[in-house]
Amino acid sequence: MRRGCIAEVLLARFGGGVHPAGCKQYSREKEIGRLPDPKEVWVPLSQHIGAPAVPAVQAGERVLRGQLIGRAAEGLSANVFSPVAGTVKSIVTHITFAGKKTEHVLIENDFSDEHTTLAPLAERTPESVLARIAEAGIVGMGGAGFPTAVKLNVRGRVDTLLINGAECEPYITCDDRLMREYAAEVTAGAELCRLACGAQRVIIGVEKNKPEAIAALTPFCKGNIALQKLRTRYPQGAEKQFIRSCTGRTVGEGELPADAGVVVINAHTAYAVWAACEKGEPCYERVMTVSGGAVERPANLWVKNGTPLREIADHCGAHEECGRIVSGGPMMGDAVFSLKICAKKTTSALLFLSKEEAETNKSSVCIGCGKCVQACPMGLSPTFIEEALLAKNYAEAKRYGAPACIGCGCCSYVCPAKRYLAQGVKLAKKIISERGI
Fold first, then answer.
1. CA-based nearest residue to 160, from 152, 148, 170, 171
2. Where does residue 90 rank: exposed (0-12), middle (13-18), buried (19+ CB within 10 A)?
3. pLDDT tens profile 243-291
4. Widest pairwise Cα distance in the chain
5. Distance CA 184, CA 377 (A)
6. pTM of the model
7. Cβ-count burial of 83 within 10 angstroms (0-12 exposed, 13-18 middle, 19+ buried)?
8. Residue 365 to residue 416: CA distance in whole angstroms
9. How is residue 306 annotated by DSSP?
10. In angstroms, what CA-CA distances link 32 with 28, 170, 232, 365?
């Protein structure tokens, strides 16, 4: 493959997977707008994998947009910044997507929009870029939320940086629009990440069903950066499958991508790195897709962290009394039980699915068709894992590979008996981890 060109040949294909209806027509042609700032924001101090940030402000204190309000804790953690200018009302416990109550910083917006930025970077070295990424509180914005500075701290171990622009989940179009409208910034951020991690090359992987994004990125894919067209198949954006498709390399069970000489970050994360390094903007907002059959005005919007989901729903004319409300995609996302929950760094989408779109069939007895085994991109046997779970034989569930599950939901999607296979395997994986089996 010549450097600076588009790779027309698919290097490899992952096994399994499915091809669900894209349902992207609702929002794919909606340019990125901006959600009006709310009167109050509840900013979670835990927006990432690892320990929650430690409050850096107190009740009664006035803060500026972009000011540090939560300092990264010891170990794996990330800084948190104020998305608005206003007064801190209190440090409160507030409900989260997981149904738990965690600490949030409640800020009353004064709508002055006074802001502060990070100090300009004096130089662009691997060390300074990594430090800036950590300082800006950037995490994986594809949904995982792993602190990006830690992920990119792999100098000497990798030769390839992969930018994940697959966006294979149905309905979601925020990364597509970001790559279309901010192609220069995404590629510039990718180059900064390449410098930070010490890779020799960058490959931006985009599914072929996003021709406009491919066209927008192409002029900027030169030198160390190449663009890889990928087939449209779910879960193309899953890390191990993405690595396989872009490089032909395989990440074995229990291994990290760095063991295969690669590191993967999301396209939105690359943009956030550019904004932090070039504009001094910390991570306090993101682009979200609001979509589904129960939304009057589907949209892609810049949304401030800490914005209640109800504000987003009202702005887009979403009907709460619908078939299902989902945060993220319909395959891997989480059902939303309250619009009091607030958006955070990893909230990529908010879907309001009509009753026709939401699956409501009751599960029945497994018919032994084996479709779940064929669809599993990790080569597992979900029905056997579920059977072991129900028998409370967790050692047997581990033997069938439950810990290797990536939670893609392909098994439940193809199951004609409508069994809750994905949820069962996920529960087995959780129990095995918690009990140290």
1. 152
2. exposed
3. 999 999 999 888 999 999 999 999 999 999 999 999 999 999 999 999 9
4. 64
5. 33
6. 0.94
7. buried
8. 10
9. T
10. 10, 18, 23, 45
